[in-house]
Design a protein that fits this description.
By secondary structure, this protein is an all-alpha fold. The two termini are about 20 Å apart. The longest helix has 27 residues. It is built from four helices and no strands.
Length: about 130
């Protein structure tokens, strides 16, 4: 199988690695009942979401990298690949920043818009 989107391949596996490292780091303190405001606090939930987003969106990038696009996929493939990487990196960053300062939650339009665009372009160009 030929990897046609090498950047997505490396970004994807890199994000999976980041998910493992952040999960291990944060997991060292999760046994404490009141860690980051307790189990149901916004801070703790948004950091967990960021950790999971690294793994899930990393794997989405790997799947995209292995998708059957022609090697010369054109602008649609290039934009879709770029938006997959942008959204996959921006989502955990915005989650982690929102856990630090609540005001950063207003930036969720960046990863969400990127990922919606990535899916639309993937669906549009994938069947060509």
């Amino acid at each position: 199988m030929v990897v046609t989107h090498v950047g997505n391949w490396y970004a994807g596996w890199g994000l999976v690695l980041v998910a493992f490292v952040t999960g291990a780091g944060v997991g060292l303190f999760f046994h404490r009942e009141e860690f980051w405001g307790g189990y149901t606090s916004f801070r703790r939930r948004i950091v967990r979401l960021g950790h999971i987003a690294c793994a899930a969106l990393g794997l989405m990038n790997v799947i995209y990298a292995l998708s059957p696009w022609p090697v010369a996929g054109g602008w649609v493939a290039a934009w879709a690949g770029g938006l997959w990487i942008t959204g996959a990196v921006a989502m955990p960053v915005v989650c982690f920043l929102s856990g630090w300062k609540m005001g950063f939650r207003q930036l969720f339009f960046v990863p969400v818009g990127s990922l919606v665009g990535a899916v639309v372009l993937t669906m549009w160009g994938g069947g060509r």
